[in-house]
Amino acid sequence: MPSEGFLLNRPGVELTLEERKLLESAVSEFRTFEPRKTVIEAGKQIEISTILVDGLLSRFIDDRRGLRQLVAVHVPGEFVDLHAYPMKHLDHSVGTLTAATIAVVPHHALKAILDPRPDLARKMWFSTLIDASMHRAWLFRVGRLDAMGRVAHFVCEMNARQAAAGLSDGRNLSFALTQSDLAEICGLTTVHINRVIRQLREADLCIFRPSRVEILDLEGLARRGDFDPAYLYLQGP
User: Fold this and answer.
1) What distance in Å separates the CA atoms of residue 206 and residue 72, rounded to the nearest whole number?
2) Could you read off the pLDDT of 126-161 as tens digits, one per residue?
């Protein structure tokens, strides 16, 4: 079972010790999944939300041919599908990218702790608004940036999110995604991704190593990816 304190403060949502204990006490169970497994299927009625404890999860949409598009990636400590609490189903699926452990929070338990605590409810609402802000940034990345810019932007985002959660020193970040994952995230082919990774290394911006990325020039990488972390609300609302 995960140790206490698995629920990390995500950027812009600083929880008090009492609030952290309340949310963690609402967890009914922990579930562990192997890589590439579907955790929640789109369109299915659900009465739980999940917190990612360990590993990486994605939100994804499959087209009619079964081809997958990743639309979000989650790091440990984040509520993955908090918006399922009011909506009761998702328009996308949630699946593991790596081996992962999730904490299950029943919606009736969320209601019990949020209804009498408007400030905590506001923080949870703010958390879902950050998700929406990141979705807009992903649209910008795929719609306006070239291949190298898309990958640079995504690496900068993952670095900022992990650093804010205390999971990265800001220069070496955990990156267990495959080139196929990165291609789906950035709307590119795996052949193109391989070329971009080489270009980023040759430009002395970052080096992709097994399960991690070493950032050589953070400022240069941000410029190449037109990355502005304002949409992450790292300083809060």
Assistant:
1) 22
2) 989 999 999 999 999 999 999 999 999 999 999 999
